[in-house]
Design brief:
Elements lengths: L2 H10 L3 E7 L9 E8 L10 E8 L6 E5 L6 E6 L7 E8 L5 E9 L3 E7 L4 E6 L4 E7 L6 E8 L19 E2 L5 E6 L4 E7 L6 E8 L6 E7 L10 E7 L4 E8 L9 E9 L11 E7 L6 E6 L4 E3 L10 E3 L1 E7 L5 E8 L5 E6 L5 E6 L4 E7 L6 E8 L6 E7 L2
Antiparallel strand pairs: 1-2, 1-30, 2-3, 4-5, 5-6, 6-7, 8-9, 9-10, 10-11, 12-13, 13-14, 14-15, 16-17, 17-18, 18-19, 20-21, 21-24, 22-23, 24-25, 26-27, 27-28, 28-29
């Protein structure tokens, strides 16, 4: 390859920004949001690209847990679980041109928020509170910077049979494709809670919950329909269950009169390790649909089923790795196992795709790393690890791309 072509490729491979949340390290009262610059590079294989921390913000409390970049502009939202304070918080931060962050608003909330979901065309946001056994909602200001409390739903539902299910633990907030319903997988109560949305007020109306199998611990969920942006096809719900380490799919039915809740018919229930036996202690975590709508990916924590190269190129000692699972959903709502792939380290609590689905960024919580893997959009399979950011300020639990 001649020098002119190399120079042209280098100029087109511009840096991309990511943000990652880090829990407070031991003996510290503050967690952080780390800004990372990813330079794609030109080659293939391990460390063919670079991923470097460029700044860190400590204005999201001791336990920054979830980032939301869906409202665009120069704003990003961060929730603090509030482990070391009487209350948790919802924080608005402004992104500077250099990627550094500055908090511009903060609101105290019920303890233990772990997920946000904007709804009603961005007029409001809902949060799932694992530690507070609650769901809360807030109205967003016109300039998208501040929040006004709307509703608080707290639950004393009889918990599930596992020790981890001593109370209700809502873990995820998800908007359905029509924008009319919100669902909240509740790990502690073995249900997925369902609410209708009042488009005039953003208030929620509770409907009958989807009941999971006992001791399944539904954690996160995604809606999916075959065909891209095709509203005439059937809608399905895929729930990843943390305690059973299984993926359950349901056909979704909508009320004919427009006034009722959602109906669910179970279609399939599969393990997350393909033809392998689920390792003892494994804990399922995240689930996401690929940008092209063709694949579903989940993450598996606390089970080092792979041995891979050290992300530090100066260290030849191999490391253990947890995993990501790739499934191919069919038009009938059932899935086919495609691949079990390494996550890059220990406890992959969260991952996200870049815009075109060619890369996956994984936050390996207990390894203090963000690892980026190449992905083949056609096959859905993950390939080589192209970059890692190691030695981050604390345990990594959420990572999002910031592509303009």
């Amino acid at each position: 390859m001649n020098n002119l072509l190399l120079a042209a490729l280098a100029s087109s491979a511009s840096a991309v920004r990511l943000f990652a949340t880090n829990y407070a390290p031991p003996n510290s009262a503050l967690g952080s949001i780390t800004t990372l610059d990813f330079a794609p590079g030109l080659g293939y294989g391990d460390n063919s690209a670079t991923l470097k921390p460029v700044s860190a913000n400590q204005e999201c409390g001791s336990a920054p847990t979830w980032l939301d970049r869906t409202q665009g502009g120069d704003l990003i939202y961060c929730v603090d679980e509030g482990w070391q304070t009487p209350k948790a918080s919802l924080n608005t931060l402004r992104i500077s041109p250099d990627g550094s962050l500055k908090r511009i608003a903060q609101l105290d909330t019920v303890q233990g928020p772990v997920s946000t979901q904007f709804y009603n065309k961005g007029a409001a946001v809902a949060m799932a509170h694992y530690g507070g056994s609650a769901i809360t909602t807030y109205k967003l200001s016109a300039d998208k910077t501040t929040f006004t409390p709307l509703e608080v739903f707290t639950f004393s539902t009889p918990p599930g049979p596992r020790p981890e299910q001593e109370a209700s633990h809502p873990h995820h907030a998800v908007l359905d494709p029509t924008g009319r319903f919100l669902i909240f997988p509740d790990l502690g109560s073995d249900v997925v809670r369902v609410y209708g949305i009042d488009p005039k007020t953003s208030l929620l109306k509770e409907h009958e919950s989807l009941k999971a199998k006992p001791a399944y611990g539904p954690r996160h969920a995604v809606f999916w329909s075959p065909g891209r942006k095709n509203t005439n096809t059937t809608t399905f719900l895929f729930v990843v269950n943390e305690l059973s380490n299984r993926l359950t799919s349901y056909r979704v039915t909508y009320p004919r009169d427009g006034a009722g809740g959602l109906g669910f018919t179970e279609l399939q229930d599969v393990g997350l390790y393909g033809d392998r036996t689920t390792p003892p202690g494994s804990r399922a975590a995240e689930i996401a649909v690929s940008p092209d709508n063709e694949f579903i990916v989940t993450s598996n924590r606390n089970a080092t089923v792979f041995t891979i190269a050290n992300p530090d190129p100066k260290n030849a000692t191999k490391i253990g790795s947890d995993s990501l699972t790739v499934f191919k959903p069919a038009a009938d709502g059932r899935v086919r196992f495609v691949q079990l792939a390494p996550s890059g380290g220990s406890f992959p609590r969260h991952f996200s795709f870049n815009r075109d689905g060619t890369l996956v960024a994984v936050g390996n919580q207990n390894s203090f790393t963000v690892d980026i893997w190449r992905r083949n959009p056609r096959s859905g399979k993950l390939g080589e690890r192209v970059a890692s950011a190691v030695g981050l300020p604390g345990q990594v639990n959420n990572v999002v791309w910031d592509e303009k």
